[in-house]
Design brief:
The complex is a heterotrimer of chains A (318), B (145) and C (167). Chain A has one domain. Chain A is built from twelve helices and no strands. In chain A, 52% of the residues are buried. Chain A is 71% helix and 0% strand. The mean pLDDT of chain A is 83. Chain B contains five helices and five strands. Chain B has a five-stranded parallel β-sheet with strand order 2-1-3-4-5, sandwiched between helices. Chain B starts with a helix and ends with a helix. In chain B, 37% of the residues lie in helices and 14% in strands. By secondary structure, chain B is α/β, with parallel strands linked by helices. Chain B has one domain: Rossmann fold, CATH 3.40.50. Chain C folds into two domains: 89 residues, Alpha-Beta Plaits (2-Layer Sandwich); 49 residues, no CATH class. Chain C is α+β, with helices and mostly antiparallel strands and 167 residues long. The chains are: A mainly alpha (318), B alpha/beta (145), C alpha+beta (167). Chains B and C meet through helix 4, strand 5 and helix 5 of B and strand 5 of C. Strand 5 of chain B pairs antiparallel with strand 5 of chain C, so a sheet runs across the interface. Chain A: Its main location: membrane. Chain A: InterPro entries: ComplexI_Subunit1, NADH_UbQ_OxRdtase_su1/FPO, NADH_UbQ_OxRdtase_su1_CS. Chain A: It is found in: Membrane. Chain A: One of its GO terms (cellular component) is plasma membrane. Chain A: It is a multi-pass membrane protein.
Amino acid sequence: MSTQVAVILSVLLFPGGLFALTLGLALKGVDRRVAARLQGRVGPPLTQPFIDLVKLAFKRTMVPTTACEPVFLGAPLVGVVSMLAAAALVPISGLYTPEPILGNLLVVLYLLVIPGIVLMVAGSSSSSPYGAIGFSREMVLMLAYEGPIVLVAAAVALRVGMAEGHVATFSLVEIVAYQRTHSIFLLDPVMWPALGAFCLFFPANLGIVPFDIPEAETEVLEGPVLEYSGPALGLFKVMSALKAVVVLGLGIALFAPLGLSGAPALLGWLAEIAVLMVLGVTAVRLSAGRMRIDQAFSFFFKWPLLLSAASVAAIALV
Amino acid sequence: MTILQKFKDIAVRSPWIYRINAGSCNGCDVEMATTALIPRYDVERLGCQYCGSPRHADIVLISGPLTRHVVDAARRVFDEIPDPKVTVAVGVCPISGGIFRESYAVLAPIDDYFPIDVNVPGCPPRPQAIIEGIAQAIQVWRQRL
Amino acid sequence: MNFLSLFVRNLVHGPYTDPFPFAPAPTAARFRGKVAFDPETCEACRKCERACPTGAIRFERTPEGMTFDCWHDTCVFCGNCAFHCPTGAIHQTADWHLAHLQADKYLQVEHGLIPAIVCSSCGGKGLDSAPAIGKIKPPLSPEETQELRSLCPKCRAKYLKDRRQRA
């Protein structure tokens, strides 16, 4: 019984649900503010993403007459729920350990696929040509980046598993625990290629420049979410905010969990995630141009795949 | 003051802007793009955001004298914008026809076809004038929420 | 790596944004804004009405005199009226605060009235407009100008003819 209550709380309050949503929106605010400062502007207030959400709640949701309404309105809900579950799965070093019943690294990877699928479903069910373009691009991009991330996960799992005497460990709790007792993988030369592959993966998963091809605002007018308005669009904003927390949190859990506990652990984790957001998202999206979908596809089949495979090979051989 | 009104006061700080070019010469569009993009005028600090899709918009800026060819398309795009919305006519062309007034090819003034709320005259209006117009549009929008 | 130096420069310098909605915006001294009209110096030649490309300027004869109207909502601020005005009665101010609500659309008008008078010489109809002084030699004295203003066009022509002959 207590396990069930703990699971529900972790999904709805901390670290999923309310906490992740607040953090995700705040991160988005930081991102917009820092981006504005780097461009020599004042920028919106840090609370702007919250204000946007409140505004969207007051707007009317319009459903295109040619759209399939249940799918059109259901898609963002599925995305939000999947990300709530995923947020509860990612451990925070020294602060939060997910219940084993929730699942391991593989489940997180499965759940991370769902927002992409939701975007595809949203784009195709809206019956808009821009949505269809966004749908096909999202599909191609997903095919490209899913391979490297699986290999990155395999590299981490192998490294922990072989050190502990079995083949591979996909439990995020054990991965974090291993890094707390030994050194973090950020300082482990064998893991550097995998880290590089992860750094290339998460801009694509979060849909930011140079890999924002499916949602490219200047080309396909935000593609899949083009036809959404009002609260339904707000759900997409919630989904992407949660997704940012999940992906960045996963990166921290896989490569750089801090050896702290208690309140310093929370502060350290927040600092890490903010630094990752500013350096990995804001600076990258301001300094890069958008790739074409075929360029992104061949890029992902070249570098991240090579890097993560190199890491796996190095671990297996050493 | 109820909680709902408080939330409405918060909501008006996030006006998303959409542009409709109803046969404009591009002068006003350039000024609007300037207002949006140049760090000197930075409308994002006021919560504004230019959006590509009419479905996301709150405030519509219409420029151009509404040529005969564009009227159906403009009308259709306008209907795509969810309520509550506010319409701003930018430049003298949509307001009265300006230099194109009484031409056989234009249907200006635009308020015969669209419910206009705020006018920003000028040929083109300067970016600050557009920001002023948006500020007035936000007042109108607050009453409609 | 050019963008990195740009980032650093922007961060060090701070935002370049004007404080506009919260502070007055800088406006050039010769900014071509709202048209202003001075009925005192207008000679009612109506050149501006003909020069106006958009038909924003309209003169009309009424029992009270000649009315001047310039509708800012159709004026394109080209400055042709000010250029062609022989006396500088019409000029452009630096005022650009023109945004207004739809209800006020037809109130955005610069209005002026050149009052009608009864000619002090013949008793006919006339306008209290400034005399056309362009080609008059020697220049009119203030007293002569005042006298001319009180005459109808026919009597003005007669007055000026007499004055030329005197000279």
